[in-house]
Amino acid sequence: MEHLIVDSNWLQERLNNPNLIILDSSPKATITGETSASSAYIPGARKLDLKGDFSAKGSEFPNTFPSEKQFTEGARNLGINSDTEIVVYDNIGVYTSPRVWWMFKAMGHQKVSVLNGGLPAWIEEENKTIDNPNTEFNRGNFEARLNESWVKMYEQIVENATYCEFNILDARSAGRFEGVDPEPREWLKSGAIPNSINIPYKEVLDGFRLKEKPVLQKIFKEILDAEKEVVYSCGSGLTACIILLAGRIAGVESMQLYDGSWTEWAEKQGLKVTP
Hints:
single chain; alpha/beta; Oxidized Rhodanese, domain 1; 2 domains; five-stranded parallel sheet; 29% helix
């Protein structure tokens, strides 16, 4: 049975499972500058460097999906095998962990879940933490195989701007989507991809946890055209995965992501801030 998310009690009961690997994908800060006060780790957790090891090296855009070769190397260096069960979390709550969850799924690894609430929930429930990640483990054998249909390219988004064949759900804040607040990448204008719909990622969160399934179902039902496929977007392909995971919990089948998101769209459309 697929577990999209698990809670702290579920994970606590399985800490000694030799086939379970816990991945800490904590960022240094969010795109809007939010940080976590805690640098602790869940016992046994291995540190996953999303920016360094699991984003395409040399890309002109941030958080770009890596090649199969790079992903395979990163996963093996974390000791991940083809049959490993993975739980990924971060120290914000639910922030970078859905991106890592989606990447493993897209690369063909099915046994991966997100810890709902992440490290804040783990600490709130008075579970033990340690000061350093686990670095003593054997190299894995996982082989990445990308499901290319899950990754939408710029040209497909351009075509959809005219023909509106699928729903684009944008996870950025309402102000950025509406073009009234600036982008964190200050050289780019804010605004929206034509024919896209805004679900700010914080709307699917209750504090540092995802909202309950019935609430998420209501959010998605109210805004989606049920006859069309769904593609997720944001600023750079990261927070889009938060609403993608929320959509899956709500029953939306799509796992499709516009990886370049607004950063690529605005760059290639020439939407630059005039000095």
